[in-house]
Amino acid sequence: MHDxxxxxxxxxxxxxxxxxxxxCINLIASENVTSPLVDAVYLSDAMHRYAEGLPFKRFYQGTxxxxxxxxxxxxIFAELxxxxxxxxxxxxxxxxxxxxxxxxxxxxxxxxxxxxxxGAHVSHSRYGILGRLGIKPIELPIIPEExxxxxxGAVKIIRERFPRIIVLGASVxxxxxxxxxxxxxxxxxxxxxxxxxxxxLGLIAGRVYPNPLEEGADxxxxxxxxxxxxxxxxxxxxxxxxxxxxxxxxxxxxxxSNHHLHRLAAIGVASLEMREFGQEYASxxxxxxxxxxxxxxxxxxxxxxxxxxxxxTHQVLLDVRGDGGGAKCAKALEEANIIVNKNILPWDGPxxxxxxxxxxxxxxxxxxxxxxxxxxIEVAGLIYRVVKGRExxxxxxxxxxxxxxxxxxxxxxxxxxxxxxxxxxxxLILS
Length: 431
What we know:
The chain is α/β, with parallel strands linked by helices. It has a domain at 38-271: Type I PLP-dependent aspartate aminotransferase-like (Major domain) (Aspartate Aminotransferase, domain 2, 3-Layer(aba) Sandwich), CATH 3.40.640.
């Protein structure tokens, strides 16, 4: 009995790895792949250990090297964003958001946020941690076809309502948010500006997207595994002494006990990769997303943001109402081994949640495995064959698997002997 159950578990794990890592074109905008070197330090003894509290002030013994590692990684990570401080203990972007919200507002306060159909993450809404903390969201206006904030309308609301915090950054984002303009209004009313950079962190690190701190944001919250190619987790970045000190006392003990210590070295290596290769990588992401958007538009897709060049991030948004809706299209693409997600768009209502208008596409992972502009022509063609050509998914799937054979390694990482390094540091990958 146990042998059969073990075999089934191992078989499912293998099937997932083979399918997603070598047979699929992954266009999920919130995912990425870590490098073999990041993997080597991630699979370490630290995954078994605890380190509650701050470095050198722990509630557990046995953390002498973890403490030093956390201090160094936090410094490297902060420097990457020209910031004074970072806290890499949050174990997700949502936990980072929760910490910032609790740090800067209290129950009954108001927060100016984007609406969910305008791209906001659920944690920014009354349905997520913002609402659970008793903070009341005020929705800021957007320009639907461009998925851009209506700056004048937003500033007007901020001046009228005096929110305690303002939250920019989004889960669906194709153009930079007007941080400078909003930060000026925030200062007028005494509000703090939180920028959720979960999706664009790698673009900021690569200096192809505006740094919110330099434009007036008080704090960046983020995850570390989207355009930033690190392990799954979260972080808080700020240059404010007061915010850092208050937030550090909220991360633990409020939202995190142990912060998954094997992430630390992995975030450090990913940060050094981005310091070395980030601008090259991020620039290629933008070239790929723009080319993919153009190719899809040329094939008759309704691509949002046409007026402004479709996209200035890793994301491409399609309105597929005329093709059966987001759920139907995403499912058909999955059958062809093209992985995207359905997504609500500004004109969707509550009844559209199950089959919304949109598809959200991200190119950061395919870029990291070596795809360039010309490869986006092939990707667009494959999407067309499924969604508009209504070709048999099995036929397209065969082409996807064959095409994927051209991309078998992770790029924008150090050219080192990972096996030798793994042996030297005692990585569990070889144990």
